[in-house]
Amino acid sequence: MTETSSPSHVVVIGGGWAGWGAAKALGEAGVRVTLLDGMADPTGSTPLTTASGKPFEAGTRGFWKDYPNINALTAELDLGPIFTDFTTSAFWSPDGLEATAPVFGDAPQWPSPLGQVAATFTNFRRLPIADRLSITGLLYAMLDLNRSDAVYRSYDNIDALTLFRSVGISERMINDFLRPTLLVGLFKPPEELSAAVTMELLYYYSFAHQDSFDVRWIRASSIAEALIAPLARRLINRHGLQVCGGTLAARLNLTPDGKAVASVETRAVGSGELGLIEEVDAVVLAVGAKGLGALMANSPACAAAAPELVDAGSLGAIDVVSVRLWLDTYVEVTDPANVFSRFEVLQGAGCTFFMLDQLQKEEEAALWGGEQPRGSVVASDFYNASAIAALSDQDIVELLMRELLPVANPAFRTTTVLESEVRRYPGSVSLFAPGSFSKRPPLDTALPSIVCAGDWVRMGSREHGAKGLCQERAYVCGLEAANSLIRRKVVTTSTSPAREHPVRPIRADESQVLIGRALNALLMNQAEALGLRWPWLR
């Protein structure tokens, strides 16, 4: 903390949801903030476009029912109706349509999971009832997950596939539904995922409430343009935020006593020019494993003082490929959001596709960069996509147009692609591997002036109900990282008293879940005293 009464200076490294959450909370508290990001313009004011000027977005991301803090942000910024209505989704296999996810909020509400179970009778097309019901055993494990820190870590140490089989889930339920769900939810197959994080994700998005899976989308332009840009303008105009786009953090320098951050060395993405940000009082690390690992490799003093950051930087990350197609005719697909599963041509990847001309019908001309619309616009994302990324752009487009999309409608096979854009994002998404919990970065590090933010961060006592790879969780963690610096008086602010940013909880767990957890804890704590445990944790 600075010795003067002037506001502190915090450098936020990373311009995703976590970085913007931290910048918002700090700026509004009267802290001077500089935000760095490798993107040329992380504020969203300069949209990503193709060479012809058509819009492009790195990944199509939804906004689920329990996103209270992002919803509050849109209301605060007075953005109006920027989201679509909640939409249906569909799962496709080589055999055709496997299942649809309805808008659960439109149906009579039942205690969870009764409403979800009832929906399977009409929305699963091929999976036998016995296979659907085999997931029941997983519900017991979900009740047990947070009984204690030790129990949570035990679940984290096993992979999700082992857990699924141990609790009696059928192989068909695993391969036809859970595997494709995880490939597009946590971006890896169950054998490569922590059972603990997998259960957190499935509970948050599917089992907490009947309508937990209800999802909506940006109705025009992109998330960056619709949400980040107005937030950035407000922070720049009202709170003096300085944004350095096209700039990477190259090294963190500590004070002579090695107890606090002092400056941040930078490198320009385009020119490689080096720079130095001095008089830094704190840093928010809102980066993933790949970026954190590179930064710690070049920051030996920081790495020695906070070895937990080195551990976090050693964790794996996942490759993503994003594609956008502009077609010469409109192709009818019933559901605007779709998932592919069990296709051998995916080579282990998960894949989604979205009919943007349906989701953004009112602003269709914008999808064509101002040109006259001529047909459907499809966005597709591949996750766990190392093998797909090795293909040529043309081969990826052909894979979609000849092998995948025609399953949803054979008309895709005879449709002409007028323009396509393929972009690769290696190591861009966090991997929640078995046993990774202890290595994930903590909110507060061994250096009081360095905090971490992001959906992969362990939030400790500030833990939030939003789980997994989640925009809401990333944004909330950014708010909490800033609040931690303010609460612990690491930074001085121009507001008196120092004001933490409010963080809204998700909806409370339903009474039957709370009762189930209490009964499970009562029984299992007594059983463990006798040396007995659930068989899957032995």
Number of separate helices: 19
The major beta sheet can be summarized as: 7 strands, mixed
Question: Quaternary state, please?
Answer: single chain
User: How many whole angstroms does the radius of gyration measure?
Assistant: 23 Å
The spatial strand order of the largest sheet comes to 5-4-13-14-15-12-16
Q: How would you classify the helix and strand content by structural class?
A: alpha/beta
Low-confidence stretches: none
What shape does the CA trace take? globular
Number of strands: 17
Cα-to-Cα separation, first versus last residue: 48 Å
Helix content: 25-40%
Mean model confidence by pLDDT: 95
Which band does the percent of strand residues land in? Answer: 15-25%
Structure description:
The structure is a single chain. The protein has 538 residues and is of the alpha/beta class. Helix content is 36%, strand content 18%. The strands form 4 sheets. Strands 5-4-13-14-15-12-16 form a 7-stranded mixed β-sheet. A hairpin with a 2-residue loop joins strand 4 and strand 5. The longest helix is centred in the last third of the chain and has 19 residues. The protein is globular. The protein starts with 8 loop residues before the first strand and ends in a 9-residue tail after the last helix. The mean pLDDT is 95.
List keywords for this structure.
538 residues; alpha/beta; seven-stranded mixed sheet; five-stranded parallel sheet; 19 helices
